[in-house]
């Protein structure tokens, strides 16, 4: 029984790694995001986007890609390259 519990948490962990990798690829090759540097992480079942976007449209595009693919809550910590302060943090949930 303990083995199954550990195996299921490992599977969930691999699923989140696979989801992050897929979102990273989609963002890396998306039109309009060439000048952006966006990181993707999974934290406690939530996808966290961080880094720098070249424009507000690029930031929204990355958020849209992650939201469409993941189907789970997304936290947006992406700053604009023109921002001087910390990024606005916003969340979307499904």
How is this structure best described in words?
By secondary structure, the chain is an alpha+beta fold. It has a single domain, classed as 2-Layer Sandwich (GMP Synthetase, Chain A, domain 3). The protein contains 2 helices and 4 strands, in the order αββαββ. Strands 1-2-3-4 form a 4-stranded mixed sheet, covered by helices on one side. A hairpin with a 2-residue loop joins strand 1 and strand 2. The radius of gyration is 15 Å and the shape is globular.
Low-pLDDT ranges? 1-12
Reading side by side through the largest sheet, how are the strands ordered?
Answer: 1-2-3-4
Coarse morphology: globular
Measured as a percent range, the helix fraction is 40-55%
Counting structural domains, the number is 1
**N-to-C series of helices and strands:** HEEHEE
Judged by helices, strands and strand pairing, the structural class is alpha+beta
Mean pLDDT: 79
Indicate the proportion of strand residues.
Answer: 25-35%
What fold name goes in the CATH topology slot?
Answer: GMP Synthetase, Chain A, domain 3
